[in-house]
Design a protein that fits this description.
This protein has helices at residues 2-24, 182-192, 196-200, 238-253; strands at residues 38-42, 48-49, 53-59, 70-77, 83-91, 100-106, 109-110, 114-122, 134-141, 144-145, 148-157, 170-177, 203-204, 213-219, 222-227, 260-265. The protein is of the alpha+beta class. The protein folds into 2 domains: 38-145, Immunoglobulin-like (Sandwich), CATH 2.60.40.10; 148-265, no CATH class. The strands form 4 sheets. It has an 8-stranded mixed β-sheet, with no helix packed on it. Strands 12-11-13 form a 3-stranded antiparallel β-sheet. The protein has a 3-stranded mixed β-sheet with strand order 14-15-16, with helices on one face. Strand 14 (213-219) and strand 15 form a beta hairpin. It is globular, with a radius of gyration of 24 Å. The N and C termini lie far apart (69 Å).
Length: 275
């Protein structure tokens, strides 16, 4: 009987401890709310920002939508309401769909740390005032100036190459924040795939979504790039394999320091990307 009582007491203590852990665990941060049909995923509310600033989000109705690859414009205002930066919000998914992901890089300069606000304006091809939409996101502007640079990502293109040569790829130009890791920045753009505007121009990618770069080194004119297993997930056929290799190789070979490219998956080289 005493043994049963002790078991009940121990069980009760365990339950109390578990309840306490659940109560005092920090709550998971919820995503920023969708307001008037627009959701800003980056930057966050009252986040400290510096130039160049990458802005991402989604629009899904209520007057927010896309038109010919554009979602709208964004302006950065300082603490006195002066405009210190402006950029076009570009669709990175199909601009004709009901939900459109967008992104842009906003370049600006500020001579002091200050409060400011990012104002988003919808794309309103009708020009009717009652269809104008606006959303304001307060931010903290960090003193300084930023620069952007251009890199190329190489994709297949069924218009430029109607015979679909598989290993024939063509460049698109992207703007990214200035960095010394320029080859990594170009690969990051490649893994994003073509934007909706680029897709309309015939560009496509054979690389799976969600592929991650695990390491990249450049030494003695050779770039060694290691990916996770997502690169070859359900990949088959000599044409697709050739296209994947061509996209990666030519994106890296745009830089004069790269003459050769070695691709690996989890450190494996020999048995990857088989037809």
């Amino acid at each position: 009987m005493k043994k049963e009582i002790w078991l009940v007491v121990i069980l009760a203590i365990i339950i109390i401890i578990l309840i306490g852990i659940l109560i005092f665990l920090p709550a998971e941060k919820s995503p920023q709310p969708i307001i008037n049909g627009i959701e800003i995923t980056s930057p966050k509310l009252n986040e400290e920002i510096s130039s160049p600033l990458k802005i991402t989000g989604t629009v899904n109705g209520n007057g927010w939508g896309g038109f010919e690859g554009q979602v709208g414009i964004v302006k950065l205002l300082d603490d006195e309401g002066n405009q210190i930066g402006m950029a076009i919000l570009t669709a990175v998914t199909d601009w004709m769909s009901s939900s459109i992901d967008f992104q842009t890089y906003l370049q600006f300069s500020s001579d002091k740390d200050q409060n400011g606000k990012i104002v988003f304006y919808n794309e309103n091809p009708s020009g009717l005032p009652d269809k104008d939409r606006e959303f304001t996101l307060p931010v903290k502007i960090k003193k300084g100036s930023g620069e952007i640079m251009k890199v190329k990502a190489f994709f297949n293109n069924n218009i430029m190459d109607p015979e679909i040569s598989c290993n024939k790829v063509f460049a698109v130009e992207r703007e990214v924040p200035k960095t010394t890791a320029i080859a990594r920045a170009a690969l990051d753009e490649l893994l994003k795939g073509p934007t909706s505007v680029e897709k309309n121009a015939g560009f496509s990618t054979s690389i799976n979504e969600g592929v991650k770069i695990q390491s990249l080194t450049i030494e003695n004119d050779t770039a060694k790039i290691d990916f996770d297993e997502q690169l070859e997930y359900q990949v088959g056929g000599s044409c697709r394999v050739s296209a994947i290799r061509a996209e990666i190789t030519e994106t890296l070979k745009q830089f004069p320091t790269v003459k050769n490219v070695v691709i690996s998956i989890n450190g494996r080289i020999e048995d990857i990307l088989q037809p």
